[in-house]
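2024-03-11 09:14:02 INFO worker-7 job=invfold-0412 stage=load source=structure_tokens
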């Protein structure tokens, strides 16, 4: 087998493990989203902002495990909280005082959130939001947007990355998604308020909820246009539809209070996961008490063996304490801004078209575009092959990036990592130009 070898970096052990894994794990990975990451590296440990692979290479990591590691790895305060909790209990399948502590904390931090329900993953919490919205409204249809990701289940993995010819109609995103399982899912292009208004005016009486990522982080980090998100909330209210913001990425990232705080919005329900517990398995659904009342009234259920597992509650509380530190989000935003400026400067110098989109500590880079994409369809014009080349060169400079052009910044990225990354960007653009 050929080994990936450059002057200073080898991935021999990763290649061996990948070959072994492919024999006994489908595609050799534990989530299909990871199968497009090339080369497929195996990591043995992580420390602060660094990942260490099994061949002894060190990388500054900007994947943050696809978002959760906002406080980096091996954070002493989070470790201590988790270690102490481990001595007392892992999970109980029963109530724990930390549930109340965390719920109080969340209702204090997240504007307009009156109650929270704990879950484990974003996918599960999204399903709970949809079920609650359906019970509350007595309607079945849900509205989602092209390019948005709300987990891997059949009713929402619809028009996630459609081909250009598939735009405009709800389409399955993988095999094993029978059409009847998403016939209640209506799909619209994003950042087009007129389309939402038109659909809700015509079919609002059938629609339980509209679900949206507040920043389209899963497809190019497109930003919402002025008034768009508030427009969705208002339109939903007018038609008795539940507004659901999927804050799995934006929560505890745009600001401590997520998109609710950052954009000053109060949707009916919001879904949190990823950064909420700094890398431990935790999700939460937050929103208006009147909507959650369908659970109290016994009209529906919200369930899960591991919901409210004590060790994850401890991790979430510790992560939120760390993120509550003075100037934390200002620093995250400044770092993201500095990186984007440097990328754009380096691209200009190299004579390459590049735009970046997003905000603060989550942004995407798009080669070949002149303007920030407004929605998923706009991202299709970007030069993905050039980004793949960029990513491969950056990896050999010791920078670990996601395969889709998205960058995540965490609090352990400091001036030293910024300086190193700027140099790596310069070297990489020199390589691309040559
Ligand atoms: N919602 C959004 C916006 C996400 O980005 C993701 C995962 O990336 C999910 C939901 C699903 O979360 P999980 O992977 O924890 O099930």
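2024-03-11 09:14:09 INFO worker-7 stage=emit residues=434
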């Amino acid at each position: 087998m050929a080994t990936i070898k450059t002057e200073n970096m080898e991935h021999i052990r990763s290649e061996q493990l990948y070959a072994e894994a492919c024999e006994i794990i489908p595609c050799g990975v534990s989530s299909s989203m990871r199968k497009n990451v090339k080369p497929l590296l195996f990591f043995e440990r992580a420390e602060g902002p660094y990942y260490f692979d099994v061949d002894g290479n060190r990388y500054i990591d900007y994947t943050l495990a696809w978002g959760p590691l906002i406080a980096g790895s091996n954070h002493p305060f989070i470790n201590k909280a988790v270690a102490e909790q481990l001595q007392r209990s892992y999970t109980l399948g029963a109530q724990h005082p930390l549930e109340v502590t965390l719920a109080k904390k969340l209702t204090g931090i997240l504007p307009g959130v009156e109650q929270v329900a704990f879950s484990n993953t974003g996918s599960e919490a999204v399903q709970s939001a949809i079920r609650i919205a359906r019970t509350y409204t007595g309607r079945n249809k849900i509205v989602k947007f092209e390019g948005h990701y709300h987990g891997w289940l059949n009713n929402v993995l619809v028009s996630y990355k459609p081909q250009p010819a598939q735009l405009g109609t709800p389409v399955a995103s993988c095999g094993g998604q029978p059409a009847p399982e998403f016939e209640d899912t209506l799909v619209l292009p994003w950042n087009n308020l007129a389309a939402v208004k038109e659909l809700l005016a015509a079919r609002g009486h059938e629609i339980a909820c509209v679900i949206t990522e507040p920043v389209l982080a899963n497809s190019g980090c497109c930003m919402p246009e002025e008034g768009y998100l508030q427009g969705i909330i208002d339109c939903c209210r007018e038609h008795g539809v539940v507004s659901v913001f999927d804050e799995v990425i934006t929560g505890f990232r745009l600001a401590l209070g997520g998109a609710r705080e950052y954009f000053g919005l109060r949707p009916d329900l919001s879904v949190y996961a990823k950064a909420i517990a700094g890398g431990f398995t935790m999700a939460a659904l937050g929103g208006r008490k009147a909507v959650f009342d369908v659970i109290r009234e016994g009209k529906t259920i919200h369930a899960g063996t591991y919901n409210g597992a004590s060790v994850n509650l401890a991790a979430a509380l510790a992560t939120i304490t760390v993120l509550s530190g003075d100037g934390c989000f200002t620093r995250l935003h400044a770092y993201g801004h500095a990186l984007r400026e440097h990328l754009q400067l380096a691209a200009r110098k190299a004579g390459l078209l590049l735009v970046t989109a997003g905000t603060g500590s989550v942004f995407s880079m798009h080669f070949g575009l002149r303007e920030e994409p407004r929605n998923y369809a706009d991202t299709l014009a970007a030069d993905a092959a050039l980004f793949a080349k960029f990513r491969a060169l950056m990896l050999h400079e010791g920078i670990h990036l996601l395969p889709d052009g998205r960058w995540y910044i965490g609090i352990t990225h400091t001036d030293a990592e910024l300086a190193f990354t700027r140099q790596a960007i310069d070297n990489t653009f020199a390589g691309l130009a040559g």
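2024-03-11 09:14:09 INFO worker-7 stage=report msg="The pocket of pyridoxal-5'-phosphate is lined by residues 66, 121-123, 126, 149-151, 213, 218, 246, 248-249, 273 (CB under 6 Å)."
2024-03-11 09:14:10 INFO worker-7 job finished
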